[in-house]
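Students often ask what a holo structure prediction actually looks like on paper. The answer is less mysterious than it sounds. You provide the chain, you provide the ligand, and the output is a string of discrete structure tokens encoding the 3D arrangement of the protein together with iron/sulfur cluster.
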Amino acid sequence: MGQERIGFREALYLLLDAPQLALMEQADAVRRARHPGDDVTFVIDTNPNYTNVCVTECTFCSFYRKPGHPEAYTLTPEQVAAKVARAHALGATTVLLQGGHNPALPFHYYFDLIAAIRAAAPDIHLHLFSPPEIAHIAETCGRTREAVLGAFWDAGMRTMPGGGAEILVDDVRRGVSPKKISSDDWIDIMRAAHRIGMKTSATMTYGHRESPEDIIDHLLRLRRLQDETGGFYAFIPWSLKPGRSPLSRLVAEEELPSLYVRVIAVARLVLDNFPHIQASWFGEGWRAGQLALHAGADDFGGLLLEENVLRQADHNVATTLDAVLTAIRDAGFTPVQRTTTYERLRRFDDADNPFDGPILRARGHDGAPEAEPVLIARA
Ligand code: SF4
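The corresponding structure tokens follow.
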């Protein structure tokens, strides 16, 4: 790097006080030094949720139902596999599989899930669970977290989503998700996953009870672990969507897109050891996602052929390939389809995909009409 790393005080200045355009330019320069050119990657994925039963009761969550609730569900491995097979047939290369903390599920359920998915879509990438799920499975199934991770590795899991991080400051976590694992637990499970060879993303959900200082603490904790393990491949921040969750009584307003763009830029500058910073069009809307590509983000996330969690917070997302390609192009970049671990699959230059129509048939912040997600291949 050859330069002093950004410390706490400077990071806080950048987040709160640096002129917006100068901050974006600085982050964009760092992004272009690391990823020269105008390519922006995305992945075609699907995100089925195997159960909405959860005993962790996070205050920001509109998705979960307590055991016995009339709307509670748990899918059979065959039902999950059928969903994955449908998405795979539409072009999905990754299944991002997550669920609530359901104490009724035995250890073998998770392996039956994996086996059914592998039988239905043998070459789809298994991007599974999250640190809080690993802790929950370990606890309910009487195994150590390391043993659970090792068993999933043996079953074919090579990457883990970085969910459940919220803000890695325990005072904040006690306020919004008091039954969830601590920040040290989250870090320790990530460290254990990295040690056995798994690669993971890292996330951050802001816009609830945290302070700006907490956001910087979160980033610096991630940077320290990445110095130690090198196991993170991407950082993905998004703001809280309070929806109809209990937290909506305290957090009535969502954070502004301008703060999101600042968070992306600061993340690019502080997380100097993270290869990729992901723009979350599905969390923040198309326009903010496009701006983030000019503020340090080099990736546009996933197509999310199925998404349930944000939908329960009245935030409908799921889109089409055309919408993602056009959004990336409209922002001034060239779309490149990638795998979960950022191997490039296909570069969509204009000759490959001349689609030039209206982009926003997707559902999201921009108020486009609701429609079934349809993958439109134009090769
Ligand atoms: S965020 Fe996850 S752990 Fe928390 S209540 Fe919702 S489903 Fe449960």
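Residues 54, 56-58, 61, 63-64, 100-101, 132, 177 surround iron/sulfur cluster (CB under 6 Å).
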